[in-house]
Write a structure and sequence with these properties.
Number of helices: 9
Helix content: 25-40%
Shape: globular
CATH class: Alpha Beta
CATH superfamily: endopeptidase domain like (from Nostoc punctiforme)
CATH architecture: Alpha-Beta Complex
Number of domains: 1
Structural class: alpha+beta
Order of helices and strands: HEHEHEEEHEHHHEHEHE
Radius of gyration: 16 Å
Length: 217
């Protein structure tokens, strides 16, 4: 989708335990460590010409989203960048605007993140790793952008639709910044009917709640 892929960032394949609290080095206190659980969804904003256009199109501060995972006792984010990969959580947060992030979690987490579905999420994450970033925001599985990755993993692994899908035409495409990027990417014929999902759509999900908002800097 147009709104999320413009940047590059997030999501991976971890999911080891249902309530597994994980550890991370760096500027994180023990209290911060205990706030992150595998399967949590993390949002951030970044500042670039493209990201400013995303903010205008979505009327949201969020330009990127990914999923918390744990590997070898450390926290990572599975993200759709080029290619889809895992990034240490600390590094991922530092890439955002002033280190700001918002952490969200499934309501009734224990009901949905059951062991067999976590195993399926792990398998799907492995299959997603290495895929190219989707600059054109197509709704195929061949390439992925950040919010597409999060939405599809939750749908396929946990049979949950985090939010309704939209079409490109449903966003605010009126600003000069947005129009310039769309013309550069699509020419005179943008795919206005293409199904898309933005980070802001997932953040508005009624299935999620905010765990914390934080600025580590």
């Amino acid at each position: 989708m147009f709104l999320c892929a413009v940047i590059s960032i997030l999501l991976v394949v971890g999911f080891v335990s249902i309530a597994g609290e994980s550890t991370i080095s760096g500027n994180f206190s023990k209290a911060h460590q205990q706030r992150f659980l595998e399967g949590d969804i993390i949002f951030q904003g970044t500042d670039s010409e493209q990201c400013r256009a995303i903010k205008k199109a979505t009327h949201s501060k969020f330009t990127h989203v990914g999923i918390i995972i744990m590997e070898h006792g450390a926290l990572y984010v599975l993200e759709a960048v080029e290619p889809v990969q895992i990034t240490p959580l600390k590094n991922w947060i530092e890439r955002g605007d002033k280190g700001y992030y918002t952490l969200m979690r499934m309501k009734d987490r224990e009901t949905y993140l059951v062991p067999e579905k976590i195993a399926k999420a792990r398998q799907l994450g492995e299959e997603m790793k290495g895929k190219q970033y989707d600059l054109y925001f197509n709704w195929s599985d061949d390439q992925l952008y950040c919010s597409e990755l999060v939405w599809k993993l939750y749908k396929k692994a946990f049979d949950l639709e985090l939010c309704p899908l939209k079409k490109l035409k449903d966003f605010d495409l009126s600003s000069p910044e947005v129009r310039a990027i769309m013309e550069k990417r699509y020419g005179k014929n943008p795919p206005l009917e293409e199904q898309v999902v933005a980070p802001s759509d997932i953040a508005a999900s009624r299935l999620l709640y905010v765990v914390e908002k934080n600025n580590l800097r």
